[in-house]
Each structure stands twice: as C-alpha cells, then as structure tokens.
DNA sequence: CATCTTATGCTCACGGAGAGTATAAATGGC
DNA sequence: GCCATTTATACTCTCCGTGAGCATAAGATG
C-alpha cells in the first residue's frame, strides 16, 4: 500500500489481479454435517468471480443455485486472503480468494454435476466429540503436540506453546471449546502435523488423521465450521439445514452434529420452545422407534419479530 | 462464476481487477471514539494492495505503522465487497475493496500526514445514546421512517417495513440494540434519508443529521463500529485503545464511548476485576476531582491464559 | 466545615442454565 | 399379552450471573 493515505479511486491503482470465490456449502443429513467438494473430495468448489453480477453475494448465490437447483438459504462471507505466501512463486498472477459459507440441504442438489457431499469430520476427525473425546486425540495428537512444545528454543516459549495447545485442545483439565476449530487447525499446521504444512516445509507430517485438501481449502473449511458453530448459538440458522418438518430430536441431532458435542435433551427442548422458534404441524413422525414425536416447523415469523432472534442453545459450557 | 465447479487454479482465470484496502482505524480519546480520516473527513484511508507483502494483514499493518509510527494493536478483517453496484459505470476497471478494523491510540500518530482523527458520532449522531435517546431521533428520524414505511405498496409490506424500523431503532417500546449500527445505516439508506443514497437515486436526502462520506465508506465505518461494539463484549480489545495505565472509570468511559450507552458503574468494576483483566500499578491517578482512583494496567497474561478470554461487560440488555 | 465528586464495598432479588427425576407412549421379541 | 427398550415430554431444584440499589470512604473546593 502507499505510504501516504490516498483518496479512494476507481481508476486502476495497483497491479492487476484476479478474484476467486471459494464456497463452504454445508448440509446436514442423518446427523452428519457434510460439505460440497470437488476433485474427489480434495477441494472446495471455487471459481473466478464474474463482474457481471451486482455483488459478490449475488454471484455466489447464482453459482450455487446453478449447482444445486434451488435457492441457497443462508450465505455469509467468511474471509478474504491473498494467495501469495502459501503458493510460493512470486511470478504467478496474484489472486484474491473470497470465501463464503452457505447453508443448504443435500437432497436438493441437482443431477449431473461433479460435486459431492462429503462428511466434514473426515477432514477434522478431532473435532467430533459426540461420542466422547476421540481416542487418537490423547494417543496421537497430544504426544505430538507435547513434543512440538518441547522443541521450542527457550523454556518460556516451551511453556507458551504448551499453554496454547492445552487451551485449544482442552488438555490439562481444561474444557473443550468447540469453536476453536481454526485455531486448532493452525496449531497443528504450525506444529507440522498435517500434510498441507509438510508440502511447504518438506517434513513428514502424515501423522494426524484427517484428509488433506488442495491449497488453503482445509483452512477455509475450518473457518467455515468455526463460524457456523459460533453462529448457531445466537442465530436460528440451523433451520436452514433442516427439512420443512422435523422432530425436536432431529433438530437436536443436527445441532449436535454441527457442534460436535452432545446437549442436554430436556434443556434443549425448553430453550427451543420458550423462544417460540418452532410450531407444531399437528402431524406426528412416522417410522420411528419409541414414542412417536410431534413434527414441528420453523416459525419464519421470528426472523421479522426479533432483531437478534437469539437462538440460545445449551452449548455454552459444561 | 462458472456454472460447473472447477479445480482451483493459480492461472489467471477471470478478468483482471485491482484490490484496495480500506481501513477503519479507531482510537478513543477523552471518551470520544475517533476514526482516522482523510480528505477533510470525507473518506477513510485507503490504497491499493501491494502484493509485495506476505498477506493482507501484513500489508495493512505495514501501511498503518508507516502512518502512525507505532505498531497497530489489533487488526481484524471486516468485509470484502466488489465495487460495481454502487459505483455504477460498468466500464471502469473493477476493483475489490477489502476493509479492515484496526485499534490504536491517537497520541501515537506521527507528524506530517494528511490524516486526521475525527469523532465517529459525527457520521452517526443517532448512535450516541450516552446522554439518553438523541432528541432528533424521535423528532426527525422516526417520522421520516414512518412515512417511508407508509409509502410501501401493500399493507403487509408497510407493516414489515415498520417492524424493521421499530426493531432496529428501538421504537414501539423495544429496547435499543447498540450493535445494529449497520442495519440502521442500511435502513436509512434504503429509506433514502441519507445523502449517499441520494446520489444514486437523485432524491433529496439531507434530512437526517450526520456527515456523509465518499463512496461506501460510511457503510464500511458502520460495519466497523458494529463489529467493535460486538467484540468488546467478549474479547478484551478495549485495552488496545487505552493508555498503559488507566483508572477503572476511564476504562468504563471508553467502553461507554464505543457502545454509545452508559453502564452500571459498580457492576462494571465487579466484572472487570473478577475476570482478572487488570492489575493495580500501585500508583494513584493525579489531577482528579473527587476521591483519587487507583491506576490499573491490563494483564496481558490473560490473553495466554484463556482461550476466549471473555470480557463480559454489563452491556447485555436493559 | 459543608458540599461536591468520585471510588469502593456490600447486599438483595430475579431469572437463566445445568442437571436430575418421573412419567407417557410407542415398538419388537418372547 | 408381557416385558424390555426407546423416545417423548413434564417438572423440579439448585446455583450463579447480573441488574440494581444502598452505604461509606476519600479526596477537592469554597
């Protein structure tokens, strides 16, 4: 950037670059959070931004709708980054990647596309704590992190490194914080424990389970998951991922799938109902084990009624 | 964007564009939140992004540090938008604007620059509720909004419009929500009540107080203020705006300045102290009226100790 | 000394959230 | 038909965070 402030100009003021959109499209099916992937699951869908659209958001919607054949429920910009530090070669044309989070439903994807829905925990197995803390977290990841912390040059740095690890991974009797998805990924990256980092540093890094992705895509996915996990706590966005009618347990399972942790059933229901987020359809769920559950639908009116439309979920802390 | 997903490529894949950085630099002096402006206060500092930097964040830091002569405490990306819908002319080279929020202190700005610190409430006078609800809100803005709502084509739309107004501006006995800065600005924009909208629609719009800005800059500023107002509630970022040593009242005044509303003094102190965010320096404030206050400093250690480092502030609701 | 201003300590009541108990309503196996 | 199993749903209880107010201390000013 210039050293002195300048008036903003519409004239070309710097080197020409290209802009790409990268999408984290999320759906939840049968308690599994999935993302749309291409190239055999090794990349997120992306493409050049065409300025024929009025805005970035419009461009993304148009593109996704062409993909899935139905309107995208919720779209949110994630982050923009410049593609240089990671790609290496300074002579390649620079590009800016603008990433988005979008929420859909799997069943509405059109035919004849190369895209696939892939469970997101395949990329971040350590993020799924629904069945308790994953065993390999203590067996594989923790020792490796400990070793990495020990390898710091000074005792102070060693302690700082370990503190970061403990905070982010809920070690040393700390609570697991499901929102720190990106921080955990970056920590593992920094510790050289994932393939993407290995590409850069030339180290052997295939030690931690989890499928890698092209370029920065796994980092973008981590950003998206983190954003979504934070968002469901105070905005009623889960409903974008639900079918038109659902039981409260299905809703709860979706929330748990996204958060990667279980919630207290009775409290969950109390919160959902007291906030008047849903209304009974009158019908009951068919094909179920156990006592049949009432079917509910989302009350779209709440979006208009409330500003923040708080979706307090029992995910604060345990 | 392409209609089918593509592998991400580093090769030039679209039309060439330029990338600009726009900065919302905030400082708080004597209970007044200020932003760095150029061009007589009509624009935010901005400039082309130079790819010589490793990342966008690095570029922004370097540039700001050249401006102010001291390291930027806290930097956060705000939003990226494409400059087309607003600028109009389809033939001008397209550009992408990437906006950032940065926190500093006014006293550390270097000499010899065209930049100035300007109080942000000059641009958003309706956002300052520290002395109660601004009178012109009820006298000027509310009637205009009511008229705008009434002008909707159908009764349903009229009701919806008014509901939006009421929610965002705390009308009809609703509570004021200080975080809805952007929504309020967009509502006023949509209602054609501010000059920036007038430029586009050719309407007479200088009815609501508040200085306009170039292009989208006031919108970007609104985004920054909203983000900051939300952030101070759960991250200890206020301290980036404070001098090294401060009294609890000074800290409270800064928070109030940012939030645009007053907080309960005793509860504020209780929260700050119980979270161990500060420690006494041992010294007392000089040059004061009333009983002298202890001086405190921020405990930087908390940043390492806690993951989320919650700064619960008594700003939830009233 | 009276008054003003700010600092600081303490209490109280309400409501939200976590957690547990109890009961109802279905299915499938024997 | 009875029992085990599974899920739905209704209550209750306790703890704590938070909003709000009262009371007192410690300085300056006239």
What does this structure look like?
The structure is a homodimer of 318-residue chains. Chain A is α+β, with helices and mostly antiparallel strands and 318 residues long. Chain A is 32% helix and 17% strand. The first copy, chain A, has nine helices and eight strands. In chain A, strands 1, 2, 3, 4, 5 and 6 form a six-stranded mixed β-sheet that branches. A two-stranded antiparallel sheet of chain A has the order 7-8. In chain A, helix 2 packs antiparallel against helix 3 (155-169) and helix 4 (181-190) packs antiparallel against helix 6 (217-231). Chain A is globular and about 65 Å long. Chain A starts with 17 loop residues before the first strand and ends in a 13-residue tail after the last helix. Chains A and B meet through strand 1, strand 3, helix 1, strand 4 and strand 5 of A and strand 1, strand 3, helix 1, strand 4 and strand 5 of B. The first copy, chain A, binds a DNA duplex (30 and 30 nucleotides) through residues 247-249, 264-267, 269-271, 288-294, 312, 314, 316-318.
Biggest sheet statistics of chain A = 6 strands, mixed
| Secondary structure tally, helices of chain A | 9
Largest interface: A-B, 79 and 79 residues
Distance between the termini of chain A: 46 Å
In CATH, the homologous superfamily of the largest domain in chain A goes by the name Nucleoside Triphosphate Pyrophosphohydrolase
Structural class of chain A: alpha+beta
Question: Secondary-structure element order of chain A, as H and E?
Answer: EEEHEEEHHHHHHHEEH
CATH topology name of the largest domain in chain A, in short, is Nucleoside Triphosphate Pyrophosphohydrolase
Q: Please identify the top-level CATH class of the largest domain in chain A.
A: Alpha Beta
């Amino acid at each position: 950037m210039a050293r002195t402030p300048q008036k903003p100009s519409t004239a070309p003021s710097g080197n020409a670059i290209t802009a790409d959109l990268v999408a984290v499209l999320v759906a939840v099916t049968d308690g599994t959070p999935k993302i749309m992937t291409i190239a055999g699951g090794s990349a997120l869908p992306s493409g050049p931004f065409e300025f024929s659209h009025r805005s970035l958001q419009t461009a993304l919607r148009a593109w996704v709708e062409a993909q899935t054949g139905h309107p995208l429920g919720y779209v949110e910009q994630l982050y923009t980054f410049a593609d240089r530090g990671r790609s290496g070669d300074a002579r390649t044309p620079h590009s800016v990647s603008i990433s988005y989070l979008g929420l859909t439903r799997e069943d509405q994807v059109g035919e004849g596309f190369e895209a696939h829905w892939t469970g997101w925990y395949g990329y971040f197995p350590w993020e799924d704590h629904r069945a308790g803390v994953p065993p390999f977290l203590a067996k594989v990841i923790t020792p490796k992190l400990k070793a990495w912390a020990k390898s710091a040059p000074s005792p102070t740095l060693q302690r700082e490194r370990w503190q970061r690890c403990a905070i982010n991974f809920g070690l040393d009797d700390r609570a697991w914080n499901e929102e720190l998805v990106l921080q955990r990924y970056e920590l593992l990256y920094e510790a050289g424990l994932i393939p993407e980092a290995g590409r850069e540093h030339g180290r052997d890094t295939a030690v931690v389970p989890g499928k890698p992705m092209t370029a920065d895509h796994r980092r973008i996915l981590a950003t998206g998951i983190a954003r979504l996990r934070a968002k469901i706590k105070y905005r009623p966005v889960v409903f974008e991922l639900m079918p038109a009618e659902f039981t409260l347990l299905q809703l709860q399972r979706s929330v748990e799938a996204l958060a990667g942790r279980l919630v207290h059933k009775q409290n969950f229901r109390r919160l959902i109902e007291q906030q008047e987020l849903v209304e009974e359809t009158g019908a009951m769920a068919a094909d179920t084990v156990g006592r049949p559950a009432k079917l509910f639908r989302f009350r779209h009116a709440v979006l208009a009624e409330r500003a923040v439309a708080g979706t307090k979920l029992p995910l604060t802390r345990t």
